[in-house]
Amino acid sequence: MDNPIVWLNGELVPLADAKISVLDRGFLFGDGIYEVVPVYAGKPFRLAPHLDRLERSLAEVRIANPYSRDEWAALVQRLADACGSDPCSVYLQVTRGVAPRQHAFPRDAKPTVYGIATPLTLPNAEKVEQGVAAVTHEDRRWQNCHIKSTSLLGNVLMAQHAAENDAMETLQFRGGFLTEGSSSNVWVVKNGQMFAPPRDNLILEGIRYTLLEQLCAACGVPFSARAIGEAEVRAADELLITSATKEVLAVVQLDGKPVGAGVPGPVFRALYAAYQRAKGAA
Ligand code: PDD
């Protein structure tokens, strides 16, 4: 895996030979969007909603979609097959392309398309069984967090904040209300009910958002999306985070204090098991 085959602008090439211009707007401005699709047993998991979101992100930032739906699906499969690891994750990125550095859109740049599949290292048994720690921070990102943009400096700083505090994730609050992690959605359990922040411009709607909602229904856990105040988060019985690469994890410590009983709770355990079943059934 030192020199995997990657996709760059219509060709499969070894990573070491994949070169882009320093004038690429992804490099200069973070002017691009991306997707991360997990692949289990050679099959992309929840591919359709991932490709829906890719199309939505492109439309939001007004980059012309370079490929048809079938071409995207074929590319994901091709990269996953080339990777040869199970599970793996496919990363796709589209930037506005190469042009002299001017902030406004160039008239005729061609989008740069990059894709790579890498082995997916899922959280180990200790993290699943014992849960993880999180810290909190004010959400200082822009107000278009619903776009899966490669402009991730705000998220990078929050991931670093977690790393420097021996935590797996930083849970963010905007004006006293929960938004999301640096690279995950956040779920709050109270009295057997599940809550998550509304799907709006302040969070990225994870593909696991709808999935977890469906798994809640299957497990008999009532779910509602609504604004969640900071005090509610700190008084939660359970906190969960979800993402393509973390799947679903229990947060058992927040800013050094135990969450609920301080161990992964029954709602986490039910949803984790349901998630594993959903993977197997895909
Ligand atoms: N991140 N919110 C943010 C800010 C994220 O970056 C992610 C995922 C999610 C969860 O989305 P999903 O369930 O579709 O993975 C929520 C990916 C994994 C990443 O940036 O690598």
From TrEMBL:
Q: Which SUPFAM superfamilies match?
A: D-aminoacid aminotransferase-like PLP-dependent enzymes
GO biological process assignments: amino acid biosynthetic process; carboxylic acid biosynthetic process
Membrane-traversing stretches: none
> GO cellular component annotations, sorted alphabetically?
cytosol
Q: Which cofactor does it need?
A: pyridoxal 5'-phosphate
Q: Which UniProt keywords apply?
A: Pyridoxal phosphate
The molecular function GO annotations come to:
catalytic activity
Question: Which InterPro entries does the record match to this protein?
Answer: Aminotrans_IV, Aminotransferase-like, BCAT-like_C, BCAT-like_N, Class-IV_PLP-Dep_Aminotrnsfr
Q: Which family does it belong to?
A: Belongs to the class-IV pyridoxal-phosphate-dependent aminotransferase family.
Q: Per its record, how is this protein called by name?
A: Cytochrome C550
Query: What is the originating organism of this protein?
Result: Pandoraea terrae
What taxonomic ancestry is recorded?
A: Bacteria, Pseudomonadati, Pseudomonadota, Betaproteobacteria, Burkholderiales
